[in-house]
Amino acid sequence: MTKEKKSCNCADKQQVEMDKENVKTEQNGCSEEAAADKVAEEAVAESDKMAATNSEAEEWKDKYVRLSAEFDNYRKRTLREKMELIESGGEDVIKSMLAVVDDFDRALSAMQSATDVASVREGVELISQKMRDTLKGKGVSEIEAVGQPLDTDLHEAVAKFPAGDDKKGLVIDVVQKGYKLKEKVIRYAKVVVGE
Predict the structure, then answer these.
(1) In terms of domains, do 2 and 83 share one?
(2) Beta strands 179-181 and 189-194: pairing type?
């Protein structure tokens, strides 16, 4: 009987061992399913992140393209406005000078039949003064030169003339008047300098 008991015990032990293995296999199967589910969830989460990142990248790309197009339109518009301003920039000066031109035309017409030279001279002087006033109103001023020391920022020396020591380095004559528009020199005064 002991032998039977022993073989029974062996059979029970084998059965217990097989049950343990089945339990382990079942647990491994469950943990493999859980692991597979976890990997699938991570893959879905990663896919969602990639989709969100791609969506955000597309949004920024769209904003960049729109901003670039908007800046290009702005640049073209300002360039066009600048060209129009340059083309019509002198319009108001020309309009103000037309009155002086009209006066010159009337003076030339009057000179054809004029016998009094003094009145013609007076008319031309009035026109000249009107021209100076118009230019002054637009910010044009004459550069003072005679008796001033030579200033290469305002004057262009075209000749030197022997003069006394008291006039050395000073402008003694103006060959062509110079003009400034506000503070910018638009034509240098051509002068003769004493040496």
Answers:
(1) yes
(2) unpaired
> Do 39 and 83 share a domain, yes or no?
yes
Q: Structural domain of residue 40, as residue ranges? A: 1-88
Q: Quick count: other Cβ atoms within 10 Å of Cβ 174?
A: 18
Do 63 and 12 reside in the same domain of the chain? yes
pLDDT along the chain (195 residues), means of 10: 52 65 54 77 88 93 95 95 83 85 88 85 90 89 88 89 82 91 90 89
Q: How far apart, in whole angstroms, are the C-alpha atoms of residue 34 and residue 171?
A: 103
Cα separation values, 139 from 44, 65, 142, 185, Å: 75, 45, 10, 11
Tokens read off for 3 = 């032998």
Q: Are residues 130 and 152 in the same domain?
A: no
Reported pTM: 0.53
| Residues 30 and 107 occupy one common structural domain | no
8-state DSSP, 149? B
